[in-house]
From TrEMBL, chains A, B, C, D, E, F:
<dbReference type="InterPro" id="IPR002139">
    <property type="entry name" value="Ribo/fructo_kinase"/>
</dbReference>
<protein>
    <submittedName>
        <fullName>Sugar kinase</fullName>
    </submittedName>
</protein>
<feature type="domain" description="Carbohydrate kinase PfkB">
    <location>
        <begin position="18"/>
        <end position="312"/>
    </location>
</feature>
<dbReference type="InterPro" id="IPR052700">
    <property type="entry name" value="Carb_kinase_PfkB-like"/>
</dbReference>
<dbReference type="Pfam" id="PF00294">
    <property type="entry name" value="PfkB"/>
</dbReference>
<keyword id="KW-0808">Transferase</keyword>
<dbReference type="InterPro" id="IPR002173">
    <property type="entry name" value="Carboh/pur_kinase_PfkB_CS"/>
</dbReference>
<comment type="similarity">
    <text>Belongs to the carbohydrate kinase PfkB family.</text>
</comment>
<dbReference type="GO" id="GO:0016301">
    <property type="term" value="F:kinase activity"/>
</dbReference>
<dbReference type="InterPro" id="IPR029056">
    <property type="entry name" value="Ribokinase-like"/>
</dbReference>
<keyword id="KW-0418">Kinase</keyword>
<dbReference type="InterPro" id="IPR011611">
    <property type="entry name" value="PfkB_dom"/>
</dbReference>
Amino acid sequence: MTAAEQESPGRPATRVDLVTFGETMARLENPVVGPMRHARSLDLGIGGAESNTAIGLRRLGATAAWFGRVGDDEFGRLITTALAGEGVRIDHAVVDASAPTALLFKERRSGTLTRVQYYRTGSAGSRLDPADVPHALIRSARVLHVTGITAAISPTARAALDDAVETARDAGVPVSLDLNYRSALWSPDEAGEALRDLVKRADLVFATEAEARLVVAADDPAGLATGLAALGPRDVLVKRGAAGVVASCAGTLHVQPAHRVPVIDPVGAGDAFAAGYLAEFVRGRPVAERLATATAAGAYAVTVRGDWEGLPSRRDLELLKSTEDTVTR
Amino acid sequence: MTAAEQESPGRPATRVDLVTFGETMARLENPVVGPMRHARSLDLGIGGAESNTAIGLRRLGATAAWFGRVGDDEFGRLITTALAGEGVRIDHAVVDASAPTALLFKERRSGTLTRVQYYRTGSAGSRLDPADVPHALIRSARVLHVTGITAAISPTARAALDDAVETARDAGVPVSLDLNYRSALWSPDEAGEALRDLVKRADLVFATEAEARLVVAADDPAGLATGLAALGPRDVLVKRGAAGVVASCAGTLHVQPAHRVPVIDPVGAGDAFAAGYLAEFVRGRPVAERLATATAAGAYAVTVRGDWEGLPSRRDLELLKSTEDTVTR
Amino acid sequence: MTAAEQESPGRPATRVDLVTFGETMARLENPVVGPMRHARSLDLGIGGAESNTAIGLRRLGATAAWFGRVGDDEFGRLITTALAGEGVRIDHAVVDASAPTALLFKERRSGTLTRVQYYRTGSAGSRLDPADVPHALIRSARVLHVTGITAAISPTARAALDDAVETARDAGVPVSLDLNYRSALWSPDEAGEALRDLVKRADLVFATEAEARLVVAADDPAGLATGLAALGPRDVLVKRGAAGVVASCAGTLHVQPAHRVPVIDPVGAGDAFAAGYLAEFVRGRPVAERLATATAAGAYAVTVRGDWEGLPSRRDLELLKSTEDTVTR
Amino acid sequence: MTAAEQESPGRPATRVDLVTFGETMARLENPVVGPMRHARSLDLGIGGAESNTAIGLRRLGATAAWFGRVGDDEFGRLITTALAGEGVRIDHAVVDASAPTALLFKERRSGTLTRVQYYRTGSAGSRLDPADVPHALIRSARVLHVTGITAAISPTARAALDDAVETARDAGVPVSLDLNYRSALWSPDEAGEALRDLVKRADLVFATEAEARLVVAADDPAGLATGLAALGPRDVLVKRGAAGVVASCAGTLHVQPAHRVPVIDPVGAGDAFAAGYLAEFVRGRPVAERLATATAAGAYAVTVRGDWEGLPSRRDLELLKSTEDTVTR
Amino acid sequence: MTAAEQESPGRPATRVDLVTFGETMARLENPVVGPMRHARSLDLGIGGAESNTAIGLRRLGATAAWFGRVGDDEFGRLITTALAGEGVRIDHAVVDASAPTALLFKERRSGTLTRVQYYRTGSAGSRLDPADVPHALIRSARVLHVTGITAAISPTARAALDDAVETARDAGVPVSLDLNYRSALWSPDEAGEALRDLVKRADLVFATEAEARLVVAADDPAGLATGLAALGPRDVLVKRGAAGVVASCAGTLHVQPAHRVPVIDPVGAGDAFAAGYLAEFVRGRPVAERLATATAAGAYAVTVRGDWEGLPSRRDLELLKSTEDTVTR
Amino acid sequence: MTAAEQESPGRPATRVDLVTFGETMARLENPVVGPMRHARSLDLGIGGAESNTAIGLRRLGATAAWFGRVGDDEFGRLITTALAGEGVRIDHAVVDASAPTALLFKERRSGTLTRVQYYRTGSAGSRLDPADVPHALIRSARVLHVTGITAAISPTARAALDDAVETARDAGVPVSLDLNYRSALWSPDEAGEALRDLVKRADLVFATEAEARLVVAADDPAGLATGLAALGPRDVLVKRGAAGVVASCAGTLHVQPAHRVPVIDPVGAGDAFAAGYLAEFVRGRPVAERLATATAAGAYAVTVRGDWEGLPSRRDLELLKSTEDTVTR
């Protein structure tokens, strides 16, 4: 086995299973729970919904490419280094020397509450432009994965999003959409309209219950899933945290419970879920397997601090079934 | 500019300037100077003479590929992640599930003394085999860079070294050799014989004065450089630490002083020097420029803890000329 | 809004809602659970029951002043810096050059057990003297808050306590008393007598069940609350940890359950409870609101390491009602 | 009281309650839960089943000696320093200059799962030899404690194990055996045969249910205990984690529940259990007391990170009965 | 002595020696020298030229007030907490809920080079407005201290600067100006014009040689000092780092050498110098004493990491004269 | 070689080369240079002039015993654990349950200045009593080592000092005295008288120039050495830091230069010097060798943080002669 064949290689894949794009940020968070101003130091990493999902696919053996803009600064270099290190193709990522890389501060305020603050106004990532979209790459992918965040960060980014989605549709590449509503970026009304338009053009849709309600009205998760599916997508996944997931896939309802694990950091669970689902989707696996891997990936993500660091490899998925508390590798 | 065009991209280069190989290890060192047993924790990183040099070239804008074996463990994954993150191609690196990744402990015993201990007996890296050598890759390179360490770690590794060198020579690819004598691996006598044989087949040779004396006898650095050059290599670089370098290049002697910088960690200076020299060599730059970049890279490497973390980008080289102590980027 | 109007300003208030005093100590604790001798470093902060409560009031928008003695050393400066930083008025704090600042070691021995060791014999704080009592300040306050600890640390401190209490009573300023029994400082018998005398002169009394039993005999929390109230105080709060609180306020019994939160550090919960209660008391809010804020403040305090660092602002109190696990500020 | 009379003295005991031996390793683990390659530093300590148990006896007031081989390196010195510091006699420990000290990496992969990797092939500890066995010391002990690990690490170590056991039996010294099966060292079949042979020669046997099944077949813990006892040992302890222990002691079955404590690190619980049991055994205490101390010691061990650091003193055992969450010492 | 009378009190002074204002930022820097992207965590503090100087005066026993805008976020609270803790009056500081607090990243790139990156575009601090200027406070001060940075961050900030300077001049309060050129904020030409205008209205001027050349042309430091003084200021201080200072004070030239100290962090030396000079100026001390305290304060500042943390108290100034390397306090 | 035969064994020696006693303290210091109140955590260790010297002898292969009192707390256990771990015999150390272990705070105020604060009033160590003196142990030693500190900490400690010295003299055991003047404990006049009396009864005396002047008057180091020797001691060592040492040994003057090393922490250099000298003295080595080892040990001590952690083994002494900056062990 070459290093490139295991879960975190760096080898350039000739063909890419998943293409995604968006804004990835430097992430700074307090190492000890409490008000951030009492921290003497902040841990440094990276985070971004789309690149988290790309890493998730790589860990599970699929290939992935990410594009977007970063600043010509240490934080931009941190992002490209981390993604390349995880084996995500970044050959279409752009270094924009005229704007800084965006920042994401995570304040772990208590064991169960995280507060988030962005420094992303005018950032390099929000300057994403249709000219940055690599059409050939998208056309060759097994799936294009986008999120609602990109529609919210700037008009040029939304134009790039439209361009990418249309490119995929024209080429018959399935479009995966995670609604990912961020209240700091737009209002529920603005978001509702834009997301509804995106859902109509998507083949797979991921949403929390609250996000689903921005687009459709329904009393319960099953109603939300059905309502979204009625807009066009073949697969709709309504995520309910510890309560599991309700899915409408090719017209059939599925209910999948969540794993019971000690939650250390809930951020990134949604991206992990999408990664697990899509990792099986690109391999052509059936719905039951997609849901199983998606919930397992979500479970792994929340047991480790960091948005993506705890994402599982195929071997890690085996461990979740173990009853032992100590394993010799 | 795309991310791949700046100093630490992840984009797969279609053609590779430098190919190198050898054993890269997980590196553990005490964060505070003193006996290692008084440390409560050890800092974790990676190190390996050849991969350090490959990273050095990437930072300076050249492309590089590294191959070798790592274990199927977290340390192996750390190595492939770090190298891919720095944009070094690792598609020919091998994961050997039957042996662990080697370890390198660096004990910073005082401000001026470092003690090194290896756990590399029977390691994955020492199981490198001629079957691992990627002939096409080597044939397409602008230079093949090897070190004496590979000749010392195992018979199969030495066979792989011979195979790689012959492949390069057959294809007209220049061979660069850093003698890199390690007393823990073999005796001066064993080393002397093997290194002499390698020098004869090399086009560029890097050596400290002590290493040069393993191969040739001479009274002074100039004599050592001339003596080594007489064995065949076009360029011979005799490194003298703070005293600079004496070189014999295409029959002409050059003397280059070192930069005066505060030394924090001397480990890695030689690899940085080679990287600086080769980064200009592959661009076809004249000897004066090669020597200037080599000494600047060496100066950067010693001002930062870590074997390769402090290696400079082209922009960093500019800073060395600055008289300011604070720079706004 | 000026900085002074938000929850942690530094602006000198012209009038002070709460005046308190006592011994505040430098606090050192092991960052990782286990026997303290295995710690390689100890975290440094400050702690003192009275100053914790003063900070609690500031966070909730009230004004507060603290006085007491600290040594002319780095620990004394740490205390005055931290209190002034939190906006607690310290203009009557005294620097006593003839004695050191007291120390408090907190050994987190297991997830549920904390051991405490003091270095406070002969400390600057225990040299508090009636001459240090600022009569005008006390007379202008909305409430004077004292604890039983001050009665125990030295005869001069007890004399100062008596002086302050009598000054408040003469001026019609309500006296708040937290029994705060410390077994390292005096015996149950000594404490019982002294505390009984203080309860008789107080308007508000805070006590755990065990502390209440030092003063009155009763079978259950309600009996303890009623028994203490019979000695004179208008409001008596009997704290029962996770079991909530039983209060006798103006002759009426109230029962308030505690919030269910993950406990990280139980130290400081009582001081937070008193702060929450008094923050509403000085605003003239009704009993139900006082109890609600008191239990919410107690809940916040235990979710964060440190005696006071986790005390909530008004905005934080809102978060306790949130069902989200991630909030964008 | 002299320092030597309290729980962690350094005074050489004239007579030793427990003698044990085996391989003790330097232990490196990630401080924050997650994949080890994401750690920037690893915490350094020591660990070894037999020396953990020796420390456990010292903490509980008994005397103990450990022997085995360590390398002539910082890790060997760390081991001898730590054991001597805990008051374990190491006068028969051997420094073997021709091999390195073994390493143990503990990867805390999630809140409930630990992965272990060894670097112990060819280690100093595995070179233990019958010539290292101190016969006089063993003959003077109250109990000899061995584990199945020693039978697995090398043929010479197994020969030393046989020699020690026979020496004890000849001298009428009871032999205590903890099966301690390690899958990385041998197969279940190899282990089953060797362990069965050891059980027959032991007086006290400690085993998990899974380990017991390597030697005897039975449906339930009681059957396993009875089955092992039928092979010869007077006391057999079948450990069931949070489900407590089932014991067959002198022909009588005992069932002891476990304490309910928050588990931080399960590694070392078995060694602590053996230490608690043997600490009472060497004092001639009855079975009920042995089981009580054993389960209490096991409870303490899991509440603290580290294999032995959290082992309790006699005073700590008292704390387990406390209902307070803060104690002043 | 009360706490308010020593060097870091929190007591509100009835009259303020120095009033200053500007933008203070949260400061994040890598704890270990090297490229910032290799840091796993960044140390958190605050920094701002004007507030650094205010703290410097407080440490030396003078009183000081600072105003400016901070965001309604943890970084804003960190700034107000730190300044209030150091005894700087912040009652006119403004919390601006519509913009974030600015950030300052310090990358310690090598032992002698620091790179700085700002996130201050659109920050709360740059929204400073003439309406924020507290005229009464300025009129009551002994000196108003401003820097050229405020002229550069925004038009409203420059208007506030003009308003404050005119208010001081009208009231006969001396104006102190530190040129503090920041190349990231404006061009040399823009700065030259604006600073020249400010110099004309100032009574005391602090400048490096390079900064002085933005305003006047001269061959040497003495020429620069004389040239600036010719524009109007009574005292002009031209700072030359390790080469000391050349001053033109009331028409007389002074040359003061620098102290020889090991430099750990050069940032903040200029602010410390100004603080030392002004601390003596407000006490009416002669020029020689002002220069002596200024150079001593500058020396202290560079021996400690952080922009202001190492600023000396009066007692610390005594230590600089000590020949001992260990002092018992 | 057994572990007990190398430099840090734990084996109880049957005979002890050096016996010493005094007060050993828990040591807390700021990890980053600057005012201690800005530290977020303090590093924890132990320190004491006499026990430092005892450890120094152990590292150099001699045997040593220390006695004194520690509190029945974690700091006392830290001290006994650390000393026993270093192989120092502590069987006559006493745990005094009625007083706390003393504390020593080291504030690294700048690169060249350390401030020290004690919490030792009423400490366990100062309660040392003649009844604690182990007469048989002293009579069997090759040298008794005492310091002037013990004469200063309490009347009972001084009585114990007298008892120990007389016991040694009666038994013909040489008495070694390090003057070790501490200004926090007594005045120069008090100290001068007491130390003069001790010098008269000592065989070997260690003093800095300033300490020597407390006892005798002389113009230069040679005069001081001669003057002290005239009071009785055979060997007098006058230490001059980087200027080396001047000694009067058996009537002959010796001058020994110091090694040139980068100084990280000057504390402990004197104890290391005494250890080096005495390690050769107990082996009967000549003066030149004693001085060489003494200065080498002093050089090692200052290159590492901590009072004793950097003390050299015999092997380390060899390294001081090395010209390499990297050594493979």
